[in-house]
Amino acid sequence: MIREFKGKKPVxxxxxxxxxxxIIIGNVIVEENxxxxxxxxxxxxxxxxxxxxxxxxxxxAFVEAPKKVVIGKGSIISHGAIIHGSIIEENVLVGIGAIxxxxxxxxxxxxxxxxVVTKDVEEGSMVAGVPAKKIRDVSKEExxxxxxxxxxxxxxxxxxxxxx
Length: 164
Fold this sequence. Notes:
By secondary structure, the protein is mainly beta.
């Protein structure tokens, strides 16, 4: 469901996939090949949300914009994760159930499942815990794995888009 809020209506690329059960409200831009999965909620009634090319917002994730939010190219916001007023750079994996609160997450990073991120994350870092702390650098293999997962999600979304 795509809904206007106070004169701001989401702008969605014809080449993006939005599941019919997802809810997108307000000042949201969804770029080409981005994919938004069942029951995800993207709500921009205070500021703007930009979901970049090839980014994936998985099932039951929630993205809210008390301040500007960017989900970077090829980034994955996993099932049930919450992004609140944050900048997620390119090729970032935010794990299942993680909460990211008004921070910047550098490119090629991984936020572990269940982590609560309250401080900025340096490029190429893996963070985990409550509150999240850097536990190590992300390996080249992990960076490539995130890229491959984003590509797989894009391909699945293209298949589903044909079915609608």
